[in-house]
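Peptidoglycan hydrolase, Peribacillus simplex. Tokens?
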Amino acid sequence: MFGDGYGTSFLANQGKNIFGTKGDFKGESVIIQTIEYVNGAPVQVWNKFRKYPTWEESLRDLANLYVKGTSWNRSLYTAVIGEQDYKKALKAIFDAGYASDPKYIEKLANLIETSDLTKYDECIEEVYHIVKKGDSVSALAKAYGSTQMQIQQWNGLVDLNLIKVNQRLRVK
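Tokens:
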């Protein structure tokens, strides 16, 4: 976020690289001048960064990096996966060598806090309902705080009036 100027940098626009991931992606890369920290001191260097066809690919690739690690160390980001405490996750990312800025953890933690990003941490678990006689999609949507359209999409319903007793429906 900081390295990409909140999505406005050359790297984010031309390379669709929103996380500053180095290397190449399917042979594609961009070379730009950047600042790295060596022994805590900023140094300007030229680095090769992955170039993606879309921002979505950038996101998927970063998630893949965390899950699968690097070719030389498959467990490099193991401490990140499943970590519920964002400060511990940031430290694990930093300790793995993803960023060299000594203030990386502090900067990202501050962004998370000032932007109230932890509000997105709550996972919504899927809820299912077994249809009983007299149930309707509209009543189920109202009862579970969903919409008829959501229930229709989640369950692949063609006709909202064609639900059957004992049918298992995702309702939330």
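The mean pLDDT is 92.
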